[in-house]
Design brief:
The protein is of the alpha/beta class and 508 residues long. It is 33% helix and 16% strand. Bound molecules: iron/sulfur cluster.
Length: 508
């Protein structure tokens, strides 16, 4: 068969809404395109196995940057991480490697980059693994265009343009290389400036946004970002209601076959997280009708046993917190609807659908945005045995540097226990975030001694384009330009890790 589009992905492909390539494939097929997928090519020749596509190759490392996938936060090979379906055949810097393989065999093919690795390397970025600044990935990959974010609207627009021999500039939600900077594009500090000055690097960080047209000069050319297209509830309803088979062959995702995505985006803007630069900093919720319809269809699948594995999104209780009146910080805005009414209504209706025995919420919630009514519903009807939350730290200064200072953890724990003393909470914490000396690590370890189920704590990984990574690279808080202590050495990170993980080991 001759394909119009061939995706090359660093992850196992599965026909499920949790697989980004599967959504794009279903969408393109709906519009009449023939789509092939090459999953996890192991050697250069694998790239040839479906031939040359009529329109383009779509290249992605998948939902995880290949360097994060392949290395631990201490830069050791991740072979032994039981939480990852580790496969050595995903090459380091997979997006660049795959693109080069394609160029060698199909030199005149158009290459479209997408996924997390491309999205978060779209401008000059600090690369923790090389410990240096790297140019935008379009410059290193020889690809034609980069799609950032989820990419459904972008990929349709690109396919249509290539089919009709139109140029690939001006596609919302994409980046291209250009000789000129359009007059209405804000200019980021250029490559030389951010290499020479940490303050300029901070200025660049402060300008990152999906909502603006941005340009950055690299030598004598520009990386241009066209601002993100607007996605609506209706769009998400369409994408998540495609007739996926939902079969998941991936070990670490098994048990999530019957997960239902309720929304995209995050309003919290945590400094260590890149979600606002992938999915955006406003919530887009699917309609209740669409989600309930999806669950009803799941009940008709032969192998469904009655349990919805997860009903959620980036933070389950942000469902329904859609507000797009301004671009200020929703977390401190009195207009934000904190009642959780929409998610309560959804959960109540979902568990009443014929054929559904349980609807679990395993996505994790923002405990500082959980109303009492919601918490009661969640604990009594939607928590299997343990609810996972991520306080990240206990020290006020570190939480401020994480932009996660809202919320009263102890009050939340007391309320949780009041609603159902038989259910447990488990906590996720982050070790060695910028700002953390041995004193803060000790404070965290002491706090963890008093909590049950502190089962997860991980070293901070400086992933590309986050605010915390900017702190790691510059030793400055980009918002204030004040100095921040950063634990840089292998030994110090290891000592902080031992201190905190020692608590977990003693408890288990
Ligand atoms: S009005 Fe408040 S809740 Fe709405 S978008 Fe603006 S900051 Fe966010």
């Amino acid at each position: 068969m001759e394909y119009d589009i061939i995706f090359v992905t660093g992850e196992i492909f599965f026909d499920h809404p949790l697989c980004g390539v599967a959504i794009l494939k279903r969408l393109l097929e709906k519009y009449g395109y023939k789509v092939g997928v090459i999953e996890m090519p192991k050697k250069e020749d694998d790239i040839k196995k479906l031939g040359k596509p009529k329109l383009f190759f779509g290249v992605t490392s998948g939902g995880i940057d290949s360097m994060v996938r392949n290395y631990t936060p201490l830069k050791k090979l991740r072979q032994d991480d039981e939480h990852l379906d580790y496969n050595e055949s995903v090459p380091d810097r997979a997006v660049i490697v795959y693109s080069n393989w394609i160029k060698r065999h199909f030199h005149d093919s158009i290459i479209v980059l997408g996924g997390t690795e491309a999205t978060l390397r779209r401008f000059v970025h600090y690369d923790y693994w090389d410990n240096k600044l790297r140019r935008p990935i379009l410059f290193d990959s020889r690809a034609n265009i980069l799609v950032y974010g989820s990419g459904e609207k972008q990929i349709l627009s690109i396919a249509e343009r290539i089919k009709t021999n139109k140029e690939l500039d001006n596609v919302p939600g994409t980046c291209v290389i250009s000789k000129e900077k359009p007059s209405d594009f804000a200019e980021l500090p250029n490559y030389q400036e951010v290499q020479a000055s940490k303050e300029k690097f901070c200025d660049m960080q402060n300008m990152f946004s999906n909502d603006n047209n941005l340009a950055q000069k690299i030598d004598n050319r520009y990386a241009l970002q066209y601002k993100s297209p607007i996605y609506t509830s209706k769009d998400l309803d369409e994408y998540y209601e495609f007739p996926f088979t939902r079969k998941i062959p991936v070990k670490h995702l098994r048990g999530f076959e019957f997960s239902v995505v309720t929304h995209r985006g995050c309003i919290a803007d945590c400094n260590f997280c890149s979600l606002t630069l992938t999915q955006g900093r406003r919530i887009i919720s699917r309609s209740e009708e669409s989600i309930l319809r999806e669950i009803w269809r799941i009940t008709k699948l032969k192998y469904f046993k009655g349990n919805i594995d997860d009903l959620g999104g980036p933070s389950a209780n942000m469902y329904g917190m859609d507000c797009n009146k301004c671009n200020k910080d929703c977390m401190i805005c009195k207009n934000l609807d904190r009642s959780n009414k929409r998610i309560i209504s959804l959960l109540t209706k979902a568990r009443k659908i014929k054929g559904v025995k349980n609807v679990y919420v395993r996505s994790g919630i923002r405990y500082d945005l959980a109303s009492k009514e919601y918490l009661k519903e969640l604990v009594n009807c939607h928590t299997y045995d343990t609810l996972r939350i991520a306080p990240e730290h206990v020290n006020k200064n570190i939480l401020k540097l994480m932009n996660k200072e809202q919320g009263d953890l102890h009050r939340f724990i007391a309320e949780f226990k009041k609603f159902n003393p038989n259910k447990e909470l488990s906590f996720y914490f982050m070790i060695a975030h910028p700002g953390s000396t041995m004193k803060e690590a000790t404070e965290l370890a002491n706090a963890m001694r008093s909590l049950k189920n502190t089962e997860a704590a991980q070293l901070f990984t400086p992933t590309p384009m986050t605010v915390s990574t900017c702190m790691y690279h510059t030793s400055l808080d980009p918002k204030t330009k004040k100095q921040v202590y950063v634990p840089y050495t292998y030994n110090e990170k290891k000592m902080q890790k031992r201190l905190v993980l020692g608590v977990i080991k003693k408890k288990s």
